[in-house]
Amino acid sequence: MDYSRWSKRALIERLQNLDKIVGTQEPAIATNTDIVMVTTGDVESTTPKRSRPPMKFDFSSFPKRKVAFKFSYFGWAYHGLARQGNALESEEKRLVESEFPTIEGEVFRALASCKLIEDESSCDYSRCGRTDRGVSGFGQVIALYVRSAGQYISDEEVEAELAKGTDASRITRDEQNGGRAVLLPLVERELPYVNMLNKALPPAIRILAWSPVMPDFNARFSCRSRFYR
What we know:
Layout (H helix, E strand, L loop, with lengths): L7 H16 L4 H4 L1 H4 L3 H7 L17 E10 L17 H9 L3 H11 L12 E2 L9 E11 L3 E3 L1 H9 L7 E2 L8 E3 L9 H8 L4 E8 L17
Antiparallel strand pairs: 1-3, 1-7, 2-3, 4-6, 5-6
InterPro entries: PsdUridine_synth_cat_dom_sf, PsdUridine_synth_TruA, TruA/RsuA/RluB/E/F_N
Protein name: Pseudouridine synthase deg1
Enzyme class: isomerase
């Protein structure tokens, strides 16, 4: 519309009429129900889903084998090698171990973190020797039962393995495995114990090597010599 030829009075009347028209109209957003409506499905979809609790690791599904670990450590920041009792047994013991850290405490934390042991009291643990607070060790040996990549086998499977020439030393049966027969893997196919533990241990403690040992091996009493300097 061309307002250039309208008089001043006519323009004022036009504006007043437009104000009256606009004043009688409600805002569009108030009547637009499509914008403000939320369906039940929308509400449910935005509700955060409950996370499932982590599944407990089933140690009974995995056989164990006895091994010896050779490791080294700088003991300057630790209260000796030996822990006081089972360091992870209770919250009280964990607090003591946290305040007075030991080399063994760190090792057992790593073993538990890697799911190699279920608890300290049932792994037939033994150590070669002790070192005092602040003392380092560069050839310490411990022995214990740890989780293996092997498998439980039946008596029939034992006979079949022996018949096809499997080394009899790879088939074990002991109390730690509830008397069940276990077919152990070859060393090169076993769990990478050294890498697993070194990733979980602090830099001051390093696992150097591991070796399979007989069930009656004891790191203390099977030791032939010790060297201190």
